[in-house]
Every structure is written in structure tokens, then in C-alpha cells.
């Protein structure tokens, strides 16, 4: 069988793999080769969650099976991209109930990572809206799982990183919208404690996210811009022809892998422009289409090449609310002092924990930033892990490529329940990824 080089969005690790496509017969059984493999969506995870010697891609299975425009129930095969779903649902006044910072992920990948968006503190993760899923098991059978039937398999599949089986299709409840625009409020914070106060003060906003400057020290340590948003009402959109329009496909491309780390130059200019712009005092109101609000990085295709050939690690952790403030300061200080990370970090507030044995969110704060791979980086991140653990937090598995299995055991309290279910349905450990082996997940 032909092997090809594959990697996920952070370009680390890169491996040779056999890429296969499954096929489903009319008798609701699937044919796939025996042996060890991992399901793969669009490779937008950062790390080794969808990497293995053999992968099964869902990308040829992207059909919409049913879309009820009245009640917003949307059923599709798992390989459909969020960008394709949005094209169909937004002109009909519906939106994704939860969406991450890129629209180029598959429905299956979203469920398997139980993705969160800028509205987690109010709406939770994507799992809350999944009505059911059809799962292809290791024995070739396809079963329906939801909160009533096969519920433990359902909870092991949500956030289960492809280790329970291949999600073949799923039903998701969409969110009603009056327009495809977002009414935004942007606020500046002079330092870390100010941004945390602002998050609390404006927690009633559906969408909130902050960009933090990771280079500033001293009085401006943690200076940030908080971006808040709500779906605009129909009568708030000025151009009546543009009330419900999907995104277009315009984007610039980074044509080749850069020899060194230059994304910082780009983001520093962009952030400083926003921060120092005289027109934006401490507060600015504006309206934009959903595309630049939810997916600002999607307008630069292949931006990941900017970090060079060695790739990068996106380090994302969550800290529980109480201990969070103190530890966030400690960790951010270590990052700022070291100066190895990206200039910008993304800070979000999470609401309560979600369903799913391996779900990442917990009530508190989550911070994500990129570290280009260099000598000594993994040791440095191990030190940060210790602080995350001490605070009672954890690392997001779908963005991990280097954490230890001990860190997983110490920070994911429902790991044993997950492993018990997997032992039942995948006794021969047929579904395995580089990540599951590295972390001894199953
Ligand atoms: C720019 C950018 C911004 C992002 N922002 C966010 C964010 O805000 N919030 C967030 O939560 N995540 C975010 N992510 C991460 C991303 O949403 C997740 O990693 C998502 O899982 C990627 O989906 P994918 O289709 O590319 O799946 P892949 O990367 O191919 O796979 C991810 C996992 O899903 C499993 N999987 C994929 N398809 C199936 C299937 N059909 N059945 C069973 N298992 C399957 C794989 O085995 C793997 O474990 C971001 C990623 C990028 C690149």
C-alpha cells in the first residue's frame, strides 16, 4: 500500500502513513481492512491525535442527509466541513451552535475533540447540541448512540479522539439567527487583572475572547483587547440585501514554508494598530460579518507555514476559576520572561464542565499560544505543565504532541471510565493513534 507524508496543523510530528477511505454498505456495516488505525478528519488538530501508521479519512463522506429548515435539526455524514455546513444553513437563518476558531474542520473531528468556541461560558461545547451519532465499531457494525441508547459509548465518543470508532454521521441542533452579522464591542485592558475583571463584568455577552500581548512586562504585563459579540438582529443590518449571506472564499495564501519564525512581526503590527489606534480609545463598537469575527486566521490560507519546517506546539491549558487568577499570572510571567512563545495568546472564559469522559473544559480560564519548536522547548513546557497541574487544570488533548502520560492520569479524572468503555468495544485496541500510544490512553 502506498504511503504518504501526513501531519496536522502544527506540522509536528510529520509521519509516513497509509491513508485509506472506508465504505459503507447498505446493510449498515462497513468494510475496512483489519489492523490498527485511527479515524482522520481534516487534520486541523495540532499534534498527533489523528496520526498513525494507518489512518481512515472521512473526507469522502460529506453528504447532508437531512436539514429541517423549520426546527434546525441538521444531519450529515461526518466528513462534511463546517465551512460547507455554514454555506447551506446561514442563508436559511441558522448557525452552528458552537464553532472553533477555524471553519475548516469536519463534523466528526468537532465531535471527537468536543470543540468549544467563544461562547463556552454560556453555551458549553459542541456535545450539548449533538442529538445522536452513528458509530462504526471495531467489529464493522454501525450503532446509533445518544444520551439514552448506548449512552456510555456516546460519552466515550464525544471528546474521545476517535478511539471508540469512526463517527459515520451525526445529528446536530442548529442555532436560530436573524442575520449573518455580529455586533461587536471591543475593549482595551491595560494589564492582566483588568482583563480578568472585564471578562466577569461582560460575562452576559454570548461571545467573548481576548488577545493578550505576551511580550509586555511591568505595568502593562497582560495588556489585551477583549472582543465581545452578539448575532445582530435583522433590523440592525443596514444593507437589507446582506442580512443573511454566507462567507465567501476569499483568502490570501502563504505559498511556501518560511525559513524562520515571522508570524510575530505580522501579529505585532496588527495588534499595535488596534491597540494604539487613536480612534479606539478604551471602547469601540462595530459590526462585521461572522467570518472575520469567528475565523480571522482563515483569511490567510496555510498560515501555519509561517513557523517554518520544524513546526510548532500550540500550548492550550485550562485553569479552574478560583486558583486560576494566581496561576494564570505565574504561567504567563514564565512565558513572557522566556520570550519563546508567539506574541499573542488567546484567553477565553469557560463555563461548567461538559458531558464526555475526556472533555477538556472546566469552569475557569483557558489560554492558548504557539511555540515554534526549538531545542529545550519540551522541557520548558513540562515545567509549565507542573504549574497547570498544581492549579488543578489540564492540557487540551487535541492540541497536544508532547505531554506525559502521567500528566494525563493526574489531570483527567474520568480517564478510568473512558478506558472501561473502550475495553468493552475496542478490546483489540484496533483504533489507536500516536497520541493514544504516547499517553497510554487506552
Ligand atoms: C486555526 C485553528 C483554530 C482552532 N480553534 C479552536 C477552538 O477555538 N476551539 C477548539 O475546541 N478547537 C480549536 N481548534 C482545534 C480543532 O477544532 C480540533 O482539533 C478539531 O478536532 C479538528 O477537526 P478535524 O476535522 O480537522 O479533525 P482531525 O484533526 O483530523 O482529527 C481530530 C481528532 O478527531 C478524530 N476524528 C476525526 N474524524 C473522526 C471521525 N469521523 N470519527 C471519529 N473520530 C474522528 C481524530 O481521530 C482525532 O483524534 C482549532 C484549530 C485550528 C487549526
Keywords:
about 450 residues, binds flavin-adenine dinucleotide, 2 domains
CATH fold name of the largest domain? Vanillyl-alcohol Oxidase, Chain A, domain 3
Overall form: globular
What CATH architecture of the largest domain would you give?
3-Layer(aba) Sandwich
Structural class category: alpha+beta
CATH uppermost class of the largest domain: Alpha Beta
Portion of residues in beta strands equals: 25-35%
Rg over CA atoms, rounded to whole Å, is 21 Å
The helix tally amounts to: 12
Question: What average pLDDT do the residues reach?
Answer: 92
- Per DSSP E runs of 2 or more residues, the count of β-strands stands at 23
Largest sheet strand order: 18-14-16-15-21-22-20-23
Count of discrete domains = 2
- Major sheet summary line: 8 strands, antiparallel
Q: Give the CA-CA distance, first to last residue.
A: 27 Å
Ligands, deduplicated: flavin-adenine dinucleotide
Estimate percent helicity: 10-25%
Sequence stretches where pLDDT stays below 50 over 5 or more residues: none
Amino acid at each position: 500500500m502506498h504511503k504518504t507524508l501526513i501531519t496536522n496543523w502544527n506540522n509536528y510530528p510529520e509521519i509516513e502513513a497509509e491513508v485509506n477511505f472506508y465504505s459503507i454498505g447498505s446493510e449498515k456495516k462497513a468494510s475496512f481492512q483489519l489492523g490498527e488505525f485511527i479515524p482522520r478528519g481534516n487534520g486541523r488538530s495540532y499534534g498527533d491525535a489523528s496520526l498513525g501508521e494507518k489512518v481512515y479519512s472521512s473526507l469522502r463522506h460529506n453528504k447532508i442527509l437531512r436539514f429541517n429548515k423549520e426546527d434546525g435539526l441538521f444531519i450529515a455524514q461526518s466528513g462534511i466541513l463546517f465551512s460547507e455546513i455554514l454555506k447551506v444553513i446561514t442563508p436559511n437563518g441558522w448557525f452552528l451552535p458552537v464553532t472553533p476558531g477555524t471553519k475548516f474542520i469536519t463534523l466528526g473531528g468537532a465531535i471527537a475533540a468536543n470543540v468549544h468556541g467563544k461562547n463556552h461560558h454560556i453555551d458549553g461545547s459542541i456535545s450539548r447540541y449533538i442529538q445522536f451519532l452513528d458509530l462504526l465499531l471495531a467489529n464493522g457494525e454501525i450503532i446509533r448512540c445518544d444520551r439514552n441508547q448506548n449512552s456510555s459509548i456516546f460519552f466515550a465518543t464525544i471528546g474521545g479522539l476517535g478511539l471508540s470508532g469512526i463517527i459515520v454521521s451525526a445529528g446536530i441542533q442548529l442555532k436560530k439567527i436573524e442575520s449573518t452579522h455580529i455586533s461587536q464591542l471591543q475593549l482595551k485592558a491595560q494589564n492582566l487583572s483588568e482583563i480578568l475583571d472585564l471578562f466577569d463584568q461582560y460575562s452576559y455577552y454570548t461571545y467573548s475572547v481576548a488577545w493578550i500581548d505576551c511580550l509586555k512586562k511591568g505595568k502593562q504585563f497582560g495588556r489585551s483587547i477583549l472582543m465581545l459579540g452578539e448575532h445582530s438582529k435583522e433590523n440592525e443590518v443596514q444593507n437589507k440585501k446582506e442580512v443573511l449571506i454566507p462567507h465567501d472564499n476569499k483568502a490570501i495564501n502563504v505559498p511556501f514554508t518560511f525559513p524562520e519564525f515571522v508570524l510575530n512581526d505580522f501579529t505585532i503590527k496588527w495588534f499595535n494598530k488596534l491597540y494604539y489606534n487613536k480612534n479606539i480609545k478604551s471602547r469601540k463598537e462595530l459590526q462585521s460579518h461572522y467570518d472575520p469575527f469567528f475565523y480571522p486566521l482563515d483569511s490567510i490560507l496555510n498560515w501555519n507555514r509561517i513557523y517554518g519546517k520544524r513546526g510548532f506546539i500550540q500550548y492550550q491549558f485550562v485553569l479552574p476559576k478560583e486558583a486560576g487568577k494566581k496561576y494564570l499570572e505565574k504561567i504567563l510571567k514564565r512565558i513572557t520572561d522566556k520570550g519563546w512563545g508567539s506574541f499573542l495568546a488567546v484567553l477565553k472564559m469557560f463555563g461548567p464542565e461538559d458531558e464526555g469522559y475526556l472533555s477538556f473544559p472546566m469552569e475557569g480560564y483557558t489560554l492558548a499560544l504557539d511555540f515554534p519548536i526549538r531545542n529545550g522547548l519540551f522541557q520548558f513546557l513540562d515545567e509549565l505543565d507542573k504549574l497547570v497541574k498544581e492549579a488543578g487544570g489540564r492540557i487540551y488533548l487535541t492540541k497536544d504532541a508532547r505531554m506525559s502520560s502521567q500528566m494525563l492520569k493526574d489531570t483527567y479524572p474520568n480517564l478510568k471510565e473512558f478506558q472501561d468503555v473502550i475495553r468493552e468495544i475496542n478490546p483489540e485496541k484496533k483504533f489507536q493513534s500516536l497520541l493514544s500510544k504516547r499517553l497510554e490512553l487506552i
